[in-house]
Amino acid sequence: MKKPLFPLGYAPSLDGARGLMTVGVIVAHVEYGWYPGAIAFMDTFFIMSGYLITSLLLKDMFESGKINFRRFYIRRIFRLVPALVVLLALYFGVAMLAGLPAWQEFKAVLAALFYYMNWLRALGGDVSSYLGHTWSLSVEEQFYTLWPLICAAFWLRFGKQFRFLVGFLCVLAITCMIWRHHLAASGAPIYRLYDATDMRLDALSAGCALALLMQDRESGFFRFVYRVAPVCAPLGAVLLFVIGFLASYGDRNWYLWQQSASTLLSAGLVASIVVRRDTWIHPCLRPACPCS
Question: E strands within the chain?
């Protein structure tokens, strides 16, 4: 029997979870003390990105046996770049009218436009506070650029024996956690621990691995997640909500071990949301629109 295309499909509750977490992040930006642990949701977002992008690549793999790089990169460009260019053009104009330092703002615009804002911040560069939030977009774009190439290399060598790629991702995630712990224990600046791409590889790897592990509904991993999802989905959602009140950007313990624990919790939540549609938490997360 022909193997189905990537079977998990669209999960409305995943969009709902992302929307609610986005609200938490906005609240933290309005008044940080109200919800300081919203930083935990950034790793959840990266897990979702890894999962969704790998799903698209798997769909290409199952349909044609290869990745359509041209289609993939064009879709990423048109999804992100036009809106970003308009935003940056408007921002720079307003910044000049407001009398902000032209060179500093221009450097920030370049960092946002060419997706290296996260490293500019991580290495202690002089960054405009108004565009600093584009650091996460930089991480995403760096991931979008490299991950399809890595997938293609593994699939060219091993075909659909995804266990080799999953093994690579597991090693990468564990290495990231150990490296972050080492940097935090060594006194690295908080902005290095928070913004740098290498500090987010565990979350991105977890999302990619989830897509690869769950692409086969008959696999033992898929069946295990399906069984535990009714407990893991609501438990994970509640615990992440509570973490939103407890964690803190400036707390070194977050980078020593709490972030790693939160990433594993987020991975369990994402996996539980996408393999089931019938836990009691799903209606709470599902967007209230006809398309869902």
Answer: none
